[in-house]
């Protein structure tokens, strides 16, 4: 599984849950190590602007509800010329 796939899967696990997701669960679901989970969370937060945080009281990763509307990953954008070049 590549990093791009793991980021989308991580987003899916976080957005599809009402309870926090533990680091151990993410390691199993994403088939990676703890440092990789932490790097993916950092990338999601820092580069893609996701409101993800670790909830110590509940013991897992969550999307911060105080951020407002549910977070969605950015879509793909193409320039006019790129669109016609691919077709």
Give me the count of strands. 2
Q: Can you summarize the main beta sheet?
A: 2 strands, antiparallel
Give the structural class.
mainly alpha
Instruction: Detail the poorly predicted runs.
Output: none
Estimate the helix proportion, in percent.
40-55%
The CATH topology label is Arc Repressor Mutant, subunit A
How many helices? The count is 4
Instruction: Supply the CATH architecture.
Output: Orthogonal Bundle
| Overall geometric form | globular
Level-1 CATH class name: Mainly Alpha
Question: What do you see in this structure?
Answer:
By secondary structure, the protein is mainly alpha-helical. It contains four helices and two strands; from the N terminus they run αααββα. Strand 1 (52-55) and strand 2 (60-63) form a beta hairpin. Helix 1 (3-15) packs across helix 3 (34-46) and helix 2 (23-30) crosses helix 3. The radius of gyration is 15 Å and the shape is globular. The model has no long low-confidence stretch (mean pLDDT 84).
